[in-house]
Q: What sequence folds into this?
């Protein structure tokens, strides 16, 4: 994994039936895939590609930001200065910087909806718990 790539991925665990797992192993042994992970990633990407149009429409309808969003302390301070609050809606990765205080988060973040991964200081996540979908 390249440097910085671990920040762009999230580890998941799945349970598979033994027959399915055996079939995957056979495909790996025959050289179709480099390993189980390669097979699973390819299968997931194939499924997502077949649903691409539906995903695009849903992202647009729900006004989700697609990709990675990073909120710095300065970003949130500027929002606080305007007297506004933001709604974080991300399909991908949403990150709040480690130097963001819980109070700054409460003052500026009205809601959090993340389909993917939400990374923030533990105290910030705690104060935003009732605002997180």
A:
């Amino acid at each position: 994994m390249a440097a910085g790539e671990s920040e762009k991925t999230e580890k998941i665990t799945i349970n598979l039936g033994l027959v399915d797992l055996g079939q995957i192993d056979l495909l790996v042994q025959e050289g179709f895939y480099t390993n189980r992970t390669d097979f699973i990633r390819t299968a997931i990407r194939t499924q997502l590609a077949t649903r691409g149009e539906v995903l695009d429409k849903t992202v647009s309808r729900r006004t989700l930001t697609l990709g990675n969003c990073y909120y710095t302390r300065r970003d949130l301070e500027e929002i606080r200065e305007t007297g506004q609050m933001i709604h974080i809606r991300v399909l991908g990765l949403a990150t709040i910087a480690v130097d963001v205080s819980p109070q700054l988060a409460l003052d500026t973040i009205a809601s959090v909806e993340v389909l993917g991964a939400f990374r923030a200081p533990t105290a910030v996540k705690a104060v935003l718990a009732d605002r997180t979908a």
Q: What stands out?
A: The first helix runs from residue 18 to 29. The chain has six helices and three strands. The two ends are 31 Å apart (CA to CA).
